[in-house]
Amino acid sequence: PDSPLARWTKSLHSLLGDQDGAYLFRTFLEREKCVDTLDFWFACNGFRQMDLKDTKTLRVAKAIYKRYVENHSIVSKQLKPATKTYIRDGIKKQQIDSVMFDQAQTEIQRVMEGNAYQMFLTSEVYLEYL
Amino acid sequence: IDSEDDLLQECISSAMPKTK
Fold first, then answer.
1. Scanning every residue of chain A, which has its alpha carbon at the shortest distance from the alpha carbon of B12?
2. Residue A130 has pLDDT above 90, yes or no
3. ipTM
4. At residue A103, what are phi and psi to the nearest 5 degrees?
5. Cα A68 off chain centre by
6. Closest to B20 (Cβ–Cβ): which among A19, A47, A63?
7. What string of H, E and C letters represents the secondary structure of A51-84?
8. What is the DSSP letter of A2?
9. How far is the C-alpha of A41 from the C-alpha of A47, rounded, in Å?
10. pLDDT, mean over chain A
């Protein structure tokens, strides 16, 4: 009853909290050409755990912004304009805080839950694993 | 000094699940 597979179908969160599940979902997204959404989701989690006093943290915030938010990437297209503006302002003013990507992460997560996650559960990658 | 890509990769990896 508590097999990994049972957990994966419970929620996107349980899938991503499992090593095999996250790996398999990543494989699926690579095939669908939208693996950036998952990398962004993990980057937001990683960023939240960083030490704000560490100079590295500002560089990571900038890197996340440049790679996923400021361009026309798949992540950027799924974010609300206000969310992008909020992040851009924080980066510009070098005012970073641990939760600055939280809203963006939530938006991306909702899209994944309603779309990629559902598709994954009926995908070849998943069924082959079963 | 690490490149931006390395820092980003490190950040992503740090958040990936390590155990089942």
1. A43
2. no
3. 0.92
4. -60, -45
5. 10
6. A19
7. CCCCHHHHHHHHHHHHHHHCCCCHHHHHCCHHHH
8. -
9. 10
10. 95
What is the phi-psi region of residue A80: left when phi exceeds 0, alpha when psi lies from -120 to 50, beta otherwise?
beta
pLDDT tens by residue, A68-126: 999 999 999 999 999 999 999 999 999 999 999 999 999 999 999 999 999 999 999 99
CA–CA distances in Å: residue A26 to residues A15, A41, A56, A80, A129: 11, 12, 26, 24, 13
Partner-chain contact B11 A16, CB within 8 Å: no
The Cα A60–Cα B11 span in angstroms is 8
- Rg of chain B (C-alpha set): 10
The first and second tokens of residue B17, run together, are 């699940």
Q: Which of A5, A45, A37, A7 has the alpha carbon at shortest distance from A115?
A: A37
Residues of B with CB below 8 A from A39's CB?
12
More confident residue, B12 or A7: B12
Which pLDDT belongs to residue B20? Answer: 47
Distance of CA A3 to the CA centre of its chain: 24
- Both tokens of A125, joined, read 């990658």
